[in-house]
Design brief:
- With about 350 residues, the chain is α/β, with parallel strands linked by helices.
- The protein is about 30% helix and about 15% strand.
- It has eleven helices and twelve strands.
- It has a twelve-stranded mixed sheet with strand order 7-8-9-6-5-4-3-2-1-10-11-12.
- Helix 3 packs parallel to helix 5.
- The longest helix has 14 residues.
- The two termini are about 30 Å apart.
- The structure holds S-adenosylmethionine (SAM) and iron/sulfur cluster.
Amino acid sequence: MPDDVRPLQQSAPLIDPFARAITYLRVSVTDRCDFRCVYCMAEDMTFLPKSEVLSIEELERLCRAFVRLGVRKLRLTGGEPLVRRGVMTLIERLGALLDRDGLGRGALDELTLTTNGSQLAKHSDALVRAGVRRVNVSLDTLDPAKFTTITRWGKLEKVLDGLAAAKAAGLAIKINTVALKGVNEDEIHRLAEWAGAEGFDLTFIEVMPLGEIGADVGTANRVDQFFPLSMVRARLKERWTLDESDHATGGPARYWTVRETGQRLGFITPLTHNFCESCNRVRLTCTGTLYMCLGQEDAADLRGPLRASGDDGLLDDAIREAITRKPKGHDFVIDRRRSAPAVSRHMSVTGG
Ligand code: SAM
Ligand code: SF4
């Protein structure tokens, strides 16, 4: 543990107007990425100027404030979290807040990240040393050519090397796969088989209408990309028996178990299943904006109070005020008559 990490004084937990305790913070540590996935970004994305982005020290102070207010799980995301300069320092410092031995000596139950896997070969050992135990890795195809079509700039081999390193380092791995019509719909079985053989959990995700994504041929329209998970499930059922599982992570995924192999499969269906009732999470961007709901525009600025004073009281008040505005739920819709996204910001702003 870094020796200059101050102990935390816990204060009253965050409870929203619908009596939901906020115990999970997702932090987008950068809006930048080494890939340009077709459903996520336009190829010619304009990124934020550095002056607007919180420093590693500021990100740490904000995360500590949330942990002081009862957050027990932190997930770093992006953009690509592992391309942010200094991110490993942040991870080590946040790792010092973990309750590593379960004896209540730390305030945090879990520190994890969602990554595209491209930097895992470099960082897996250090992640484990910092206390990370699980990572979510996004991978939509096992075909190298398709991988480059989807990510525009990515190389499948690098991600597979990263996965091997993560596995060797002892990290538990969950693969997140966005189901894409006409792109990976024919790979559903192959992906499930591969994940099962590797010992990875696998979760399928539906495309969500967030942000403009550019106008390359065949990728410009989310109606064209959308492949409902009911169809993914139907495909899997052609070969396997799927039993609904009561496994719950507090997240939006619903889980099924493959009876023949015992493998767990998750399905995140934000458009067809409303998962808001049990929402325990809020999302912080790399500029210090807090989104209380993934599917709504309302947000709170925390960079102002963070930079205004070294007094944590001001920051805590701003966080508490934001939580009073957490809405009951979202109203995403992929509408054939509307080409504009339901929410104008990109997924890389909040990191999913
Ligand atoms: N770069 C990291 C990665 O790809 O895992 C973290 C950030 S990325 C924005 C987080 C997740 O959001 C990825 O699993 C990605 O597939 C998913 N995602 C991005 N845009 C999406 C969209 N429009 N609909 C559904 N999922 C999306
Ligand atoms: Fe980058 Fe992740 Fe978005 Fe792909 S999904 S462009 S890897 S942030």
